TrEMBL record:
Record keywords: Membrane, Signal, Transmembrane, Transmembrane helix
Pfam families per the UniProt record, alphabetical: Pkinase (PF00069)
Record-linked InterPro entries: Kinase-like_dom_sf, LRR_receptor-like_kinase, Prot_kinase_dom
PROSITE patterns linked: PROTEIN_KINASE_DOM
Organism: Salix dunnii
Gene Ontology terms: cellular component: membrane
PANTHER family, per database record: LEUCINE-RICH REPEAT RECEPTOR PROTEIN KINASE EMS1, LEUCINE-RICH REPEAT RECEPTOR-LIKE SERINE_THREONINE_TYROSINE-PROTEIN KINASE SOBIR1
Protein name (Swiss-Prot/TrEMBL): Protein kinase domain-containing protein
Molecular functions per Gene Ontology: ATP binding; protein kinase activity
Length: 466
């Protein structure tokens, strides 16, 4: 839906032109008055006193004329500007506002009036499932941005601001976001329409994993983590202005049939300034301390989600309330990682493949740094995307029968024969440390056994193998 927007620069140019025109008009009027007064003057010789008085009257007339014209021009300019802003302001729309060709206002209005199935609830509304006349199933959130008795319920400026924000959110398109398909403004709430995804949320999936009703391997969990951080990167770095999620948690990560994640509820907390944003167990510590929220706060929440995917544990588990755990999932992971016992934190159902365990241990380190107490110590979502995307090694396992994986940080200086470059991630501790400290992404090289002699044997040592 394309809308014309009011431009302050155009208005300023109009005001400046009006002022110049009126100022010129005033000068012309003053000069005419001077000419008429000079014509009326007697041709008889005048005394110096009379000449001075006449000149003084002329100067006063010019000054008063300019001053009057300037004041009038300013008043006129403000009146024009106010009128233009009034005419250009966004009207408050009534009835359904549709952004999808699959939905019609009549079918949506009819569906909202029917009995709907409750899917879940959050601090700012409830989710329902309903179907349109054409058979399309949709998810509807009853968004309640106003507290009961709040004067903002009747404020047209607040309703207009919310409407503009919703239209902006509806314009976002990304495979890892839940797109807003329509909304309906009601007297004290908004009904937001999204695609219905029957698979449910990440929270539902992890609950089923804990109850042994669902198996989620490491590859699927890593794919979910990569999709979540890609959605955050889009909001943080590809939207103008920047959009913050404010309420990132497994319940707001929707999984499709292929377990591809899509972020829901993003940006809505901005529309409810009175909402306590630190009520979630996934909120960053600065939200509790001074209510400061930034993109690094979203990164902290992502670190919590990554920790849940790695450990399979719920952050609200009573275990994390004990002193031995440090009081939180993040503190527990940090303690184990620093003690060299990060493997003990991993979900036991994930253990088995050695290469996958190495990847998961790297992911633990990423989760820990994302949950740093200071926002400046956390990586950005833009940095996290390649860090997670390159964890998985896409190499044919058959290559490893005659080849050895060696960490080499300056391979161009080597002259070994029979070497093949394969772009994979470093999986040894030393290579990972360099990757994090230098903010670069290294490559590994594969060497045949006979090439070790050409290298003097030092790069084929067991301690340097990945």
């Amino acid at each position: 839906m394309e809308k014309r927007r009011y431009s302050p620069q155009v208005s300023n140019r109009k005001v400046t032109t009006s002022l110049v025109f009126l100022f010129t008009l005033c000068l012309y009027y003053a000069s005419v008055q001077c000419q008429e007064s000079s014509k009326v003057t007697s041709p008889s010789p005048s005394t110096p006193t009379q000449s001075k008085n006449g000149l003084k009257r002329i100067l006063i007339s010019i000054f008063l004329g300019v001053l009057t014209g300037l004041i009038g021009a300013i008043i006129f300019a403000f009146a024009v500007r106010f009128l233009v802003r009034y005419m250009k302001r966004t009207p408050i729309l009534k009835g359904p506002v549709i952004f999808s060709p699959k939905i019609t206002p009549k079918s949506l209005q009819s569906a909202l009036e029917n009995q709907n199935q409750l899917l879940g609830s959050s601090s700012n509304g409830k989710y329902y499932r309903t179907a349109l006349d054409n058979g399309l199933t949709i998810a509807v959130k009853r968004f309640e941005p106003f507290e009961i008795g709040s004067p903002e319920r009747q404020s047209k400026s607040v309703k207009r601001r919310i409407q503009q924000e919703l239209e902006m959110l509806a314009s976002l398109r990304h495979r890892n976001l839940m797109s807003l398909r329509a909304y309906v403004r009601e007297p004290d709430r908004f009904s937001l329409v999204y695609d219905y995804v029957p698979t449910g949320s990440l929270e539902d999936a992890m609950n089923r994993v804990r109850e042994n009703e669902l198996q989620l391997g490491w590859e699927v969990r890593l794919r979910i983590a990569v999709g979540v951080i890609k959605g955050l990167r889009y909001l943080h770095f590809e939207c103008g202005p920047q959009i913050l999620h404010y309420n990132l948690k497994p319940g707001n990560v929707i999984l499709d049939a292929e377990f591809e994640p899509r972020l829901g509820d993003f940006g809505l907390a901005k529309l409810t300034p009175n909402l306590d944003r630190a009520t979630s167990g996934y909120s960053a510590p600065e939200c509790f301390q001074d209510c400061r929220y930034s993109d690094k706060s979203d990164v902290f929440s992502f670190g919590m989600i990554l920790g849940v995917l790695l450990t399979g544990r719920d952050p609200t588990d009573p275990f994390f309330g004990e002193t031995a755990s440090g009081g939180s999932l993040g503190c527990w992971l940090r303690h184990l990682q620093q003690a060299g016992e990060a493997r003990e934190a991993l979900d036991k159902s994930l253990l088995g493949e050695e290469v996958e365990e190495d990847e998961m241990l790297m992911a633990v380190r990423i989760a820990v740094v994302c949950q740093s107490d200071m926002p400046a110590d956390r990586p950005s979502s833009d940095e996290l995307v390649p860090m997670l995307s390159q964890l998985h090694i896409h190499v044919d396992p058959s290559l490893f029968s005659d080849w050895q994986l060696v960490d080499v940080h300056d391979p161009l200086n080597f002259t070994a024969t029979n070497r093949t470059r394969v772009e994979v991630d470093c999986i040894s501790e030393s290579c990972w440390d360099e990757l994090r400290s230098e903010h670069v992404y290294g490559h590994a090289w594969l060497f045949q056994d006979e090439a070790c002699d050409d290298l003097g044997g030092e790069f084929c040592d067991r301690g340097n193998q990945g």
